[in-house]
Amino acid sequence: MSELNPAPADGVAVEGPVLRALLDDVLPSGSRVLVLGPHGSDVLDLVSARAASVTTVASLPDPAGTDDLRYDLLLAAGGLDLPTSEVVPGAAGQGGSGWAERLERLAHLAAPGAVVILSLPNEFVLSGLLDSRGSAWPNAGAAALVEDESRPASAADLAAELDRVGLPASRVFAVASSGSEPRALIDSAVASSTRPGRFAARVAVQALEAASADTELLAPLADAADAAAQAGLLSSTLSGWLAVSGPTGGRSLYARIPGHDTVLAADRSRTADDAWDIRVTPGNAEHDPSVPVKFSPAAIPAVIPDAASVEHTLIRFAAAEDVPSFRALAAALGDWARAQFAATKPVPECVPVWTWDELIADADGFALGVAPWRTAKSDSMESLLAAAWLRFHDRLLGGHRHHPWPAWTVGDDLVSTWLDMSGVEASPELLARGRELADAIDGLPSTDPDLRTALLEADEARQEASELAAHIGGLEQALAYRDRQLLVRETRIRRLRAELQEAVVERDKISAEKARLHTSRTYQLANQLRRATLLARPGKLASRVRKRTR
């Protein structure tokens, strides 16, 4: 039996597969349920299917007087910040009551051993701090609640308040949410102890990026989240907290894979040190034949090591300009890829599309993380390596991270260098296929640059423009010098041409004089006399002349 009162017009229904996965673990069967505030139809359907009766209200009702009016499950996933103007028949108005008073009224509605699910937003959330649009109070009532000193401000405060009213928390999750949908629930103790590149930190970063995909940010969320994780403050900088009070607090981590409604549920492994046992709840995923990769949740490993990803290690080597270590790791990745590919024959299309952010180095070499992508058709090992390195290139340079290679060595040239370290010779066809595979993988950061990235790109553009202007100035000076040289040569050539014309005229005059001289009788007689003087035997000539003259 259910009593479904309408949600307030301005209420935002809490929903999503992550919340359903948690409820599936903690919701008792055959129970009486009170749903406080607006929740999505998917959540209400799950609760109604499991519970004996469900009552939904838009604001806190009067405290129960008897056990018959108490509930086995109190679901307030939207928190206690309810509209102050809402008046529900048979319920007291909010009357400006503080958060602590609202919690006490909620506790009076809980039956002994009841499960209570209560959320609390975080005013220090990273996505809000980095939102370029700023923030504003949604209404005066919410502003009054935030200013209320009895309101908890951390996971520890929330647990302490629940303990004070007799509802000790079995677990308090740090929540990364997108609007009204929780995208990741991470045990606050785990979120505080994880470090950049590890499983819980990767889950948090992916959830934050997916939740803020359409938000204009001041700086990349991943960098800020990694810095918070390094300082042990990740739990204090997510969207908020969700406490579970009751016999069980569910698993340590719930997360939605970006781009899909498949949910991961994880606990610390019982069989392996520093590892996670993974349970996958597949969603509705259909493969598009035009996409070169396919989503395969069943391929996600049952155990994932809790160690830094290969991408995190490569970025650290690049930032430290430790090229020998980078090269050694790249060579090891090439050897591992060849061994993995050989092990999948004769069905190479079952090979994962590797991504270095979900590959973990362990004692046995490398282990896959959350890697649900598989090739949709037969691809070569070289193309899969090219896809992994191209994706790493996009994430390294897209984050404006420091690396030891020259600034002009980017794109295919830089990827070809890394492929060569892995023992693969790059070709245009190989890089083109790798780009198709890399672009087909979901979960990539938004292509819209944040403000910090835009400013960095603007600075780079200004520097490049300045360098080009200096280069153009140098070319202009060289051209001006060349023009002066050409002018000198032109002047010299013109002078030589004039001298040549004068010499030709003088030569023609001399030739005319010589022709006139050669036709004169004096020249002819002189020429004959010249010839006569050249005779070697003049006596013989005289004898012949005498004979002729006779």
What is the secondary structure topology, with strand pairs?
Layout: E1 2-4, H1 17-26, E2 32-36, H2 41-50, E3 53-57, E4 71-76, H3 99-107, E5 110-121, H4 126-129, H5 140-147, H6 155-164, E6 169-178, E7 181-187, H7 188-193, H8 199-211, H9 221-230, E8 240-245, E9 253-256, E10 263-268, E11 275-281, E12 293-295, E13 303-305, H10 310-319, H11 323-344, E14 359-362, E15 365-368, E16 373-375, H12 381-398, H13 412-421, H14 428-440, H15 451-518, H16 521-533, H17 538-549
Parallel strand pairs: 1-3, 2-3, 2-4, 4-5
Antiparallel strand pairs: 5-8, 6-7, 6-8, 7-9, 9-10, 10-11, 11-13, 12-16, 14-15
Helix pairs in contact: 1-2, 8-9, 12-13, 12-14
Protein name: Class I SAM-dependent methyltransferase
Keywords: Coiled coil
Coiled coil: 451-513
Which features does this protein show?
Class I SAM-dependent methyltransferase; Rossmann fold; two-stranded antiparallel ribbon; 550 residues; twelve-stranded mixed beta sheet; coiled coil; 3 domains
Residue share in helix: 40-55%
Q: What's the CATH architecture of the largest domain?
A: 3-Layer(aba) Sandwich
First and last CA, distance: 167 Å
Q: What proportion of the residues form beta strands (DSSP E)?
A: 15-25%
Mean of residue pLDDT values = 83
Helix/strand-derived class? alpha+beta
Query: Biggest sheet, open or closed, and with what strands and sense?
Result: 12 strands, mixed
